[in-house]
Amino acid sequence: MLNELHIENIAVIEKADIEFDSGLNVLTGETGAGKSIIIDSIGSVLGSRVSRELVRRGAEKGRVTAVFGLTSLCEDWLRDNDIEYDDELIIQRRISADGKSSCRVCGEPVTASQLKDLAGLLVDIHGQNDGRQLMDEHRHIDYLDSFGNFQQDLDAYKAEYSKYTALKKEMSKLSMDEIEKERLSETLKYQIAELERAELKSGEKESITARRDLLRNSEKLTESLDIAYEALYGGDENAVSLAQNAGYFASKAADIAPELEEAAKNISSAVFSLSDAAELIRDFRDSLDFSPQEYDQLETRISLLNRLERKYNRDDEALIEYLDECRKKLDDIQYADERLVKLQKEISAQSIVCRKAGEHLSCKRKEAGEGLQKRIEDELKQLNMPSVRFMVDFQPVENEAGFDSKGIDSVSFLMSANAGENPGKISKIASGGELSRIMLAMKNVFAENDPVATMIFDEIDTGVSGIAAQRVGEKLYTVSTGKQVLCVTHLPQIAAIADSHYLIKKEERDGRTYTDVKKLSREGRQMELARLHGGDNITDITIMSAEQQLESADKFKKSYSGVKK
Fold first, then answer.
1. pLDDT (tens digit per residue) in 182-198
2. What is the DSSP letter of 4?
């Protein structure tokens, strides 16, 4: 769970240190006080996109540090990413005034992408736009799949569908009109003929360029070889004969002074080395056969290779590969009709496989749909929607194939909020408060199989009031018996049932705006609940009413049979 949060120079928050508890943590405060900044700060430290506007005006950089308790999944992630850790998971995000940011986990730098992967193991944030996402029917099938326990079946279907799309893409490439086919064929034939005439050979350009450079310097090379050979082996006073004489006399001296034997051996070895070098130079000199015709031929060949490299924007090695590609493309076109017939059979066969896998997946979904319907209805009845009907509607995919990337099903959630009404699309029936409660119900159901230890709700109370608000608060409390819950709210019914209550307060000092975060005592909670009820008009009656609300919340907690983690 999230144990500590340190915020520095983020928006109107100059500095804040918050220690969160297990259970239900509630954040309240006036509109604009900075409650959402707390949530945005948590989002930023978990890899959300940030901008320079997040940094407090006049500061060089902002910083958010979060300290989490370790779980087995987090430890696995840390080991997979070669990050050393102790008994806590410390994440830090720095944002500079120019918009650049850096991320560290347990002191080690990580990318924002890595941070998002880790965040998925730590926190589930329910933002104010999640209700709007619920109205997007394209997402409903994903909600259902996340509820069902059939990931293996999903993966199996996706694998078969991937094969189907690969065949379709290949068929699309081959299915061109006759004019286009003829044009491409002529182009390929011309390129193949041109490259075949060149008789390209691997490594040829490098070798002939070296030979050309040798010929270009033939006079200097011959002169140098002649001089070197003359010095080594020509005339009476050459290096080899001088070394032989030196070796002879050194051997004589070694007979008298044994310590000179090493010198005599070295001279003898040098004689052999000099003789070998002389023979090598002589043989190389004799092998030289320079002619102006050869030089011209090499220059012409190099010029051709250079022209082809420029034309096709490839080096000589890549030109050989390109020639093979052209031949294959031409073969594909020339035998396209045959391949198309074969592909059509393969696509038909793969369609059957996809539909079969889709039907198996659909059975799993419909079974999960029945369970989801019952669970959501039960949850919504607890949230003061006693007459609600929730349905998972299945329709066949409407396309030629009868399936798409997600299967053979088109899934949408339908609901009826009032008795006697037919279920309809959530987007057309649900009010803002009903959307909030439906999303809370779904979050609670999905959380049972979710390893994430912390859930954050940013104004889940939108459009909710009265008894419904009290039921939402009770539901948040029941969720918090298994997970840590952080909730931003404006409602006293929700704030009253919190285990820990934090007041976000904004004030001006020396012409600057500052936001402070304070954990409230029992007396402080009374005053804050009184403010939530009556605004500035706080009286003994509103304070007494706030205390009664706290006592009522305490009774609910005692009566609830859940056990806090």
1. 888 899 999 999 999 99
2. E
